[in-house]
Write a structure and sequence with these properties.
4-stranded antiparallel β-sheet, Jelly Rolls, 5-stranded mixed β-sheet, 46% strand, 12% helix, 155 residues, 1 helix, globular, disordered N terminus
């Protein structure tokens, strides 16, 4: 799999609309408070297991895992729960949207390099409902097959 840089229209559009609405509400001269309603729904945790292979013909490898969000405005947290060997290996994580070619178009600013841990290493808030994907990638240090587990929690 190859990383693709994505169009950020989906997240950026929602953020710009929300910011515009909030600023517009504050400019009307009204002294009425604005009520913000938190998204409702059940927290869903998807668990993905995989094996990341060493480079093929010099090309770093990446795996893509797709998931869907049905409630707009919630948070997404991604945790690399385990990885190895070795257990301290650093891998790349990215959040994006599935592309028509089967890859994951990474959303600008939603990548990190991390080792496994018990707290989330990548997240987003205010996510619109829709199709998403998470990428697990070699950052240049995978010398043998590396098994991993990630969790993606979302509303």
């Amino acid at each position: 799999m190859i990383f693709e840089r994505s169009r950020t229209a989906r997240f950026a559009g929602v953020i710009v609309l929300a910011a515009s609405a909030a600023m517009g509400a504050g400019c009307g001269g009204s002294s009425s408070p604005t009520t913000v309603t938190a998204p409702t729904g059940n927290l869903t945790t998807d668990t993905f297991n995989g094996t990341l292979n060493p480079p093929v013909n010099g090309v770093f490898q990446a795996n893509v895992h797709a998931f869907n969000i049905t409630t707009s405005g919630g948070n997404i947290t991604i945790t690399l729960v385990s990885a190895g060997p070795p257990p301290t290996i650093q891998l790349g994580l990215g959040l994006g949207n599935p592309s028509s070619t089967g890859t994951c178009s990474i959303i600008s600013g939603f990548t990190t390099q991390t080792s496994a841990g018990s707290t989330s290493q990548l997240g987003a808030s205010g996510a619109p409902s829709g199709a998403y994907c998470v990428v697990v990638a070699d950052v240049g240090n995978v010398l043998q097959p590396v098994s991993y587990t990630i969790t993606v929690a979302h509303l």
